[in-house]
Amino acid sequence: MTLCRVDGQPAASLGLADRGLAYGDGLFETMRVEQGRIALLEQHLQRLQDGCRRLLIPFERLQVQDEVTAFATELQQGVCKLILTRGDGQRGYGLPQPAMPRRILQGSPLPQWPLAHAQQGVRLFPCRTRLAIQPLLAGLKHLNRLEQVMARAEWQDDSYAEGMMLDTSGRIIEGVFSNIFFVRDGVLLTPELSGSGVAGIMRGQVLQLAGRLGLVVQVGDLYPDELDGMSEVFTCNSLYGIWPVLGYASHCWTAGPLTRRLQSLINRQDS
């Protein structure tokens, strides 16, 4: 079943004056729905609230929470995508005063990824498209996704399930639609996202879980020439959980014990 709501009402279209359409002026969350409930709803709402604060978009948390919860109950199973735009505006970049944010909810089936992605692992495509460095937007799941669109257009080969993206300084940042982790000498590493990239909900869950397990975690700059020293690599997002990475360019890995341990614990949390 395909569902859509705009500002709490059934709708299948959007006004041409919406700033999300004109400028990508807004944020979004992509949430997994199981048995009428949204997984990690609190974390999604908190990220959205933080993003609205940074973009100066008014945010009515209780209103959004009530609408999303009711939408998930109706959807029951699948993906709930919440888009929050600044609302309508006149021509020009100046912020409308007052802003009247628009809430768009879309429901769709869960993606049907092969079980082998989680069970056996995936290969990553070496994307040529680089992520711009912009600290004002770093970490946000904002509507400007053209970098990811261009990166995903680089490969059609089904042997690649994801791509790895660097920033314009050559640092490893993330996958096209995932965050990425590495293991080196028993230490869990993930890229610093203060200049670009999305601070994913599942990334946050992995970091939190690693802390509870007493693992040594390092968040910092990582470069492709460090990959030879990595013993394990995995990607993650809130829809599929964790995928072990088997290959990237000339590098090869196996689905290692730390990846499997975290994957098992994440799956147990989701069940």
From TrEMBL:
Its EC number is 4.1.3.38. It comes from Thiopseudomonas denitrificans. Homodimer. SUPFAM superfamilies: D-aminoacid aminotransferase-like PLP-dependent enzymes. GO terms for biological process: 4-aminobenzoate biosynthetic process; folic acid biosynthetic process. Keywords: Folate biosynthesis, Lyase, Pyridoxal phosphate. The keyword Lyase applies. GO terms for cellular component: cytosol. PANTHER family: AMINO-ACID AMINOTRANSFERASE (PTHR42743), AMINODEOXYCHORISMATE LYASE (PTHR42743:SF2). GO terms for molecular function: 4-amino-4-deoxychorismate lyase activity; pyridoxal phosphate binding. Involved in the biosynthesis of p-aminobenzoate (PABA), a precursor of tetrahydrofolate. Converts 4-amino-4-deoxychorismate into 4-aminobenzoate (PABA) and pyruvate. The lineage of its organism: Bacteria, Pseudomonadati, Pseudomonadota, Gammaproteobacteria, Pseudomonadales. It catalyses: 4-amino-4-deoxychorismate = 4-aminobenzoate + pyruvate + H(+). Belongs to the class-IV pyridoxal-phosphate-dependent aminotransferase family. Its cofactor is pyridoxal 5'-phosphate. It comes from the Bacteria. Pfam families: Aminotran_4. This is Aminodeoxychorismate lyase. InterPro entries: Aminodeoxychorismate_lyase_IV, Aminotrans_IV, Aminotransferase-like, BCAT-like_C, BCAT-like_N, Class-IV_PLP-Dep_Aminotrnsfr. Pathway: Cofactor biosynthesis; tetrahydrofolate biosynthesis; 4-aminobenzoate from chorismate: step 2/2.
